[in-house]
Amino acid sequence: MMQSTMLLDTYLKQLQLSTFRRNYHKFAEDAASANLNYERYLLALTEQEIAQRERNRQMRLIKEARLPVIKELADFDFTMLPQFNKAQLLELSKGNYIRKAEPILMVGNPGLGKTHVAIALSLLACRQGHKVRFFNAAGLVNELIQAQDQHSLTKFIKTAACFQVVVLDELGFIPFSATGAQLIFQFCSALHEKVALIITTNLHFAEWTQVFGDERLTAALLDRLTHRAHILEFVGESYRFRQRLQVVTGAPPPPNLTSRPIKEDPPPTEH
Predict the structure, then answer these.
(1) Distance CA 16, CA 33 (A)
(2) In the chain, fewer beta carbons within 10 Å around the N or the C end?
(3) 10 pLDDT exceeds 90?
């Protein structure tokens, strides 16, 4: 009996059926006590293996997305933005825009939750099985310049095009140099209609020239990005301003202001 168990453990390890290997003893006891046949016992083990692999896959996708924090769509307080199109966002959360490689442009003043929503959509996309990459716009420009200096710009952009969702957060907070503007244009143009771009910005489209400097470049970029785009407008009073105000007055902060760092349980390891 012991030799059979050792052999089974060895074979399951070779087959990389870690959840199967971890559960078969207990499931055998449960099946015996419930008088389940072999097929039901095997089905239960297989379902657990499949479920664990899916959890591991989602965890890996979330880690690879490089989200700054975890923010859930369920935690977003829509009551603070009475003019916001909640129905449009909930429809987008289903992920159909990803299959069609349609852009999402989130426009509004700072502190209204654009980054929260961008992260939440990214998280949902990971859970739907899509490859996601989250960039801060200024950080992306630095990476593009570095890639250009190292003669690896083409490789960098090709790698980005392998993702199904790419987020550019806080576009417009810092004006770009002429080189940075050209590189962002090249990056977005290369991904256009191949990848679902999600962009958050505090500038209305007419103000984008302040960031890119060149009117023709800005017009060309907007022409690409707004084609088939889903535009979400954020209008209201800053969450962070309300938080500071409530700290001064002694009132508790609204619940939607909380976020938590990424902390995923590691997948089970083989022994």
Answers:
(1) 28
(2) N
(3) no
Cα Rg of the chain, angstroms: 24
* 175-191 mean pLDDT: 94
Structural domains of the chain, with CATH: 2-63 (no CATH), 66-257 (3.40.50.300)
Does an H or E element contain 107, and which? Answer: strand 104-108
In this structure, are residues 168 and 199 in contact, taking their beta carbons and an 8 Å threshold? yes
> To which residue do tokens 């006891």 refer?
29
Q: What is the pLDDT of residues 150-166, one digit of tens each?
A: 999 999 999 999 999 99
The 8-class DSSP code of residue 253 comes to P
* Helical axes 18-33 vs 2-14, angle rounded to 10°: 140
pTM over 0.70: yes
User: What is d(CA 142, CA 140) in angstroms, rounded to the nearest whole number?
Assistant: 5
Contacts of 98 (CB under 8 A, 6+ apart): 125, 128, 130, 164, 165, 196
Q: Say which residues have a Cβ less than 8 Å from residue 209's Cβ, sequence separation at least 6.
A: 215, 218
Give the single-character DSSP code of 257: G
Q: Which burial class, exposed, middle or buried, applies to 26 when counting CB atoms under 10 A from its CB (0-12, 13-18, 19+)?
A: exposed
CB atoms near residue 248 (< 10 Å): 8
pLDDT tens sequence across 102-134: 999 999 999 999 999 999 999 999 999 999 999
- Between strands 132-136 and 104-108, the pairing is unpaired
Grouping H, G, I as helix, E, B as strand and the rest as coil, residue 1 is coil
Tokens encoding 198: 């999600």
Q: What are the residues facing 134 on neighbouring strands?
A: 167
